[in-house]
């Protein structure tokens, strides 16, 4: 389909003319070893020069905080003084998270985070049908693709403020429900179920366009020959969908699921802004608190040690989930 | 009527008499167009936001709505002998139009809400009393953290965005070139390590980073959300690297034979070739940085330097549950969306293309 016109494909189209590389390299190397040696040294120098900002950034802004967060798990660190001058507390923070003082709040936040991940399968299923619809040769599909993606690029804070006003107690949606005969507020931002619904709804509304676009790209790589052949063999469209289209989309769906889950488990902005008026963004009885909100709250309490443990428990969970997904994927590929 | 509104919102007050609109709207054509078409279906729109469940009882009416969208007249002329494909097309279009209403209605509601007195915010869709009070109140009276904070917030957001985009892209482009085209020891290891850092959940490093920025004296101004980003972005590097791979080595070799050094070759030969990709990355970087919330929330301690998203969220929290400031908050939110709407309207093809690209790569 010609409507996805990107420079990307244009440039990508003639990429792998890499055969030139080895030939040239060999031609250079053989006749004069010392010259090529000098050139190679210069290239190494230039290469490292060009990547040096990335390397410095990596060391200073990622590696140092990373190591500190590992060590902070065992210290009573307030985030103001230096870590090493802080008191070492052994496994105190772990005890607090697993069964102690903080466990109830933390696991509530963890549970909420999982509940807010329900949006992911919904986005994928809805996105799949939308992609099928928008992959038809039909007028207006291009416009629809843009429209469905608009919420995805808009400022999370601004759109969360809008939805907050729509869903708030006696807000617009409540008013519509009243006019339809509802007796009292649906308490979207107050009750547990209401918050779970509202946050998931907002995330689907915001994220479905992205899934759709990705799946459309996936659909366009499905071989039409295969579909034609299946049609000639008398396969109906349901069979084609299940036996050809879905398997061909598998890599896209897998990618969306893995990256989507990683992102979803780190959700913060949407519930935090939606629930700004309830318990400082964490919701009534913390019913909208996520793991990242929990960590953020610990910053305010200057308890960086506990924050590190909470973040690492989440990180560990993400790693395990991702590893399982990768393993299943590998098994599946090997089976084929 | 609604067209007028949108023009006003976009900051281009046109004389009422002049029937211009969409075609001429200087900014956000697409956005203006899509916004404008939704009110045409207000009856549908006002119904509870219940996606596709609404079947199609008044098929005729919906077909008309659809005609506005795209397929003009065609189905109507040949109504007697619609092919199965045409019937499916109509049904699909109806469903997609309904979905589009769900996608866009919040924005339309937002625009109208900023034009009402606060008493009407939740109770009406169209304003009964039209007022621009929200837009005048917003500047100094918003229960925001300080007087005149919105203007300052806009400036802060620009300060925290524009230099970042420029430097980040350039630094990333150099690194991407090195990773794609130069042969040097340790290249692959470093690249893999950089990719690996994308796996680290932000929650893990965010508090130690806050401490680090404090130690480096970055948190008293906007620098904490600027300086660290000057050191490049691995996603941009990854993306640009694919483009550099696409350029045949013969081109670089030719430039080298002509005596150009590495930097010359890069700046005057390769960079122009990947300019479209650079532009795409710059746009995505702009959107990402402009919308960023958690970073500034964590790292900017001085409220004078809060960016728009932080100000909006804090202002909202300060607003309590009363509605009196809601139109102002929404007006300010709308202002914060304007740059994104403009950028998206102008560059939507590039933005959507980049997603498709990542889909193909992913």
Structural notes for this entry:
The complex is a heterodimer of chains A (336) and B (362). With 336 residues, chain A is mostly helical. Chain A folds into 2 domains: 33-93, no CATH class; 95-335, MetI-like (MetI-like fold, Orthogonal Bundle). In chain A, 71% of the residues lie in helices and 1% in strands. Chain A has helices spanning 7-13, 20-29, 33-72, 92-97, 103-115, 119-134, 141-153, 156-167, 172-179, 192-220, 224-232, 237-264, 269-274, 291-300, 304-335; strands spanning 75-76, 87-88. Chain A is globular, with a radius of gyration of 26 Å. Chain B is mainly α and 362 residues long. Chain B is built from 17 helices and no strands. At the A-B interface, helix 1, helix 2, helix 3, helix 6 and helix 7 of A face helix 2, helix 6, helix 8, helix 9 and helix 10 of B.
Terminal CA distance of chain B: 45 Å
Q: How many discrete domains of chain A?
A: 2
* Secondary structure tally: strands of chain A: 2
Contiguous helical run count of chain A: 15
CATH topology of the largest domain in chain A: MetI-like fold
How helical, in percent, are the residues of chain A?
A: over 70%
User: Judging from the principal axes of the Cα atoms, what is the shape of chain B?
Assistant: globular
Unreliable spans of chain A are: 1-30
CATH homologous superfamily descriptor of the largest domain in chain A? MetI-like
CATH class of the largest domain in chain A: Mainly Alpha
For the secondary structure, the number of strands of chain B is 0
Structural class of chain B: mainly alpha
Number of helices of chain B: 17
Strand order of the largest sheet of chain A: 1-2
Give the overall shape of chain A: globular
Helix content of chain B: 55-70%
Which range does the strand content of chain A fall in? under 5%
Listing every helix as H and every strand as E from the N terminus to the C terminus, the arrangement of chain B reads HHHHHHHHHHHHHHHHH
Largest interface: A-B, 124 and 123 residues
**What is the beta-strand fraction of chain B?**
under 5%
Label the structural class of chain A.
mainly alpha
């Amino acid at each position: 389909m010609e409507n996805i016109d990107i420079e990307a494909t244009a440039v990508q189209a003639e990429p792998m003319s890499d055969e030139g590389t080895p030939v040239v390299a060999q031609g250079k190397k053989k006749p004069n070893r010392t010259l090529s040696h000098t050139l190679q040294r210069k290239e190494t120098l230039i290469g490292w020069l060009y990547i040096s900002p990335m390397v410095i950034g990596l060391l200073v802004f990622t590696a140092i905080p990373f190591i500190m967060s590992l060590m902070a798990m065992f210290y009573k660190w307030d985030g103001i003084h230096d870590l090493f001058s802080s008191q070492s507390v052994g496994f105190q923070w772990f005890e607090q998270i697993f069964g102690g003082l903080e466990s109830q709040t933390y696991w509530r936040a963890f549970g909420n985070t999982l509940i807010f991940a329900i949006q992911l399968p919904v986005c994928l299923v809805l996105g799949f049908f939308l992609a099928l619809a928008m992959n038809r040769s039909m007028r207006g599909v291009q416009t629809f693709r843009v429209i469905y993606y608009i919420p995805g690029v808009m400022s999370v804070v601004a759109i969360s403020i809008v939805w907050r006003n729509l869903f708030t107690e006696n807000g617009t949606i409540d008013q519509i429900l009243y006019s339809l005969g509802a007796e009292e507020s649906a308490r979207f931002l107050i009750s547990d179920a209401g918050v779970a619904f509202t946050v998931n709804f907002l995330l689907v509304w915001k994220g479905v366009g992205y899934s759709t676009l990705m799946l459309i790209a996936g659909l366009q790589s499905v071989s039409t020959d295969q579909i034609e052949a299946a049609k000639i063999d008398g396969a109906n469209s349901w069979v084609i969908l299940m036996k050809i289209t879905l398997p061909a989309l598998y890599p896209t769906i897998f990618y969306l699921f893995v990256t989507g889950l990683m992102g979803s488990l780190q959700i913060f902005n949407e519930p935090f802004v939606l629930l700004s008026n309830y318990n400082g963004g964490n919701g009534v009885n913390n019913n909208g608190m996520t793991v990242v909100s929990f960590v953020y709250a610990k910053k305010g309490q200057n308890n960086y040690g506990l924050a590190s443990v909470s973040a690492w428990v989440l990180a560990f969970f993400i790693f395990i989930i991702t590893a399982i997904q990768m393993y299943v994927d590998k098994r599946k590929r090997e089976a084929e | 009527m609604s067209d007028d509104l949108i023009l006003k919102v976009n900051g281009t007050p046109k004389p009422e008499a002049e029937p211009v609109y969409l075609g001429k709207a200087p900014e956000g054509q697409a956005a203006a167009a899509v916004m404008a078409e939704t009110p045409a279906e207000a009856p549908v729109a006002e119904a509870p936001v219940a996606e596709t469940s609404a079947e199609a009882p008044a098929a005729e009416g919906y077909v008309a709505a659809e005609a506005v969208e795209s397929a003009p007249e065609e189905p109507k002329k040949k109504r007697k002998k619609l092919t199965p494909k045409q019937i499916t097309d109509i049904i699909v279009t109806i469903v997609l139009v309904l979905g589009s209403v769900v996608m866009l209605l919040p924005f339309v509601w937002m625009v109208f809400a900023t034009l009402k007195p606060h008493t009407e915010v939740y109770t009406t869709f169209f304003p009964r009393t039209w007022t621009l009070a929200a837009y005048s109140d917003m500047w100094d009276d918003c229960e925001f953290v300080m007087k005149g904070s919105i203007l300052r917030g806009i400036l802060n957001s620009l300060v925290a965005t524009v230099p970042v985009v420029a430097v980040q892209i350039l630094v990333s482009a150099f690194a991407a070139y090195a990773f794609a085209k130069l042969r040097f020891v340790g290249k692959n290891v470093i690249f893999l390590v950089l990719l690996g850092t994308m796996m680290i959940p932000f929650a893990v490093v965010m508090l130690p980073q806050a401490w680090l920025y404090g130690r480096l004296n970055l948190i008293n101004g906007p620098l904490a959300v600027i300086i660290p980003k000057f050191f490049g972005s691995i996603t941009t590097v990854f993306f640009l690297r694919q483009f550099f791979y696409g350029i045949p080595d013969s081109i670089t070799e030719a430039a080298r034979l002509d005596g150009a050094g590495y930097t010359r070759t890069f700046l005057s030969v390769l960079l122009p070739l990947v300019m479209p990709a650079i532009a795409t990355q710059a746009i995505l970087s702009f959107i990402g940085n402009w919308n960023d919330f958690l970073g500034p929330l964590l790292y900017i301690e001085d409220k004078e330097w809060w960016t728009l998203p932080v100000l909006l969220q804090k202002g909202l929290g300060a607003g309590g549950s009363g509605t009196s400031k809601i139109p102002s908050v929404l007006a300010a939110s709308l202002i914060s969306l304007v740059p994104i709407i403009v950028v998206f309207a102008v560059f939507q093809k590039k933005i959507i293309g980049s997603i498709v690209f990542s889909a193909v790569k992913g």
